[in-house]
Structures are given as structure tokens and as C-alpha cells.
Fold this protein.
Amino acid sequence: MPDAVTTDAVTTVGALKEAVWRFADERSWHRFHSPKNLVMGLAVETAELMEHFLWVECEASRALVDDPAQRAEIADELADVACHLLNLSNSLNIDLSDAVAAKLVKNAQKYPAEKYRGKYEA
């Protein structure tokens, strides 16, 4: 999105979906963006992101982004995951904001704050 401020505070999900759609469109890649391919790509990119945290203890994993080079690599992988997710929501015509909002309502019912605050129960 050239000439635009692209921070989380001002960039909408819709703008990001439009940007990834336009990127794929300029390269004639939509024919490759079947849900199957995008889900598989999402899994691969997620695994690449996971590699940065493999064998790292919890607190040390939080500190990985303190190193500028590591931070840049993690940001790249996180962006790859996000792009695949946004492309998938475009391919399936699912409003990602609506889906997240609906899921948060379901999770709030399943995990009431009063019962689960500070706890993890499987």
C-alpha cells in the first residue's frame, strides 16, 4: 500500500485483504489460490514461523525479538502467515473480522473470565 500509513492502529483488515488480492492479481496467481493450496501454504508458513521458537524456553521466546535480525526474520514469517490467512479469507469469501468477533463470543461463553482468569485447563 504505497503512500499509506500501514500501522496496526490505522490499517483495516479490509485494506490488507485488498492489498494481498491486488498483489496476487498483478501476478495472475488467483488460479493457484484454491482453499486447499492456501491452507497448505498457511501450514508451511506457520511451521517456518515456529522454527524460530523451537527449543526455546517460554521467557527466552519473548526475548527473541530483542535482537534486530531475529525480529526482522520473525516479522517476515509472521507476515507470510498473515498473507496466506488473508488470501484464504478472500478465496472463501469469509469476512475475517466477523469470524473473529463471532469466535470471541463463543470463546467467552466457553471460557468465562471469572472461572478461567490466570488458569489454563484443557
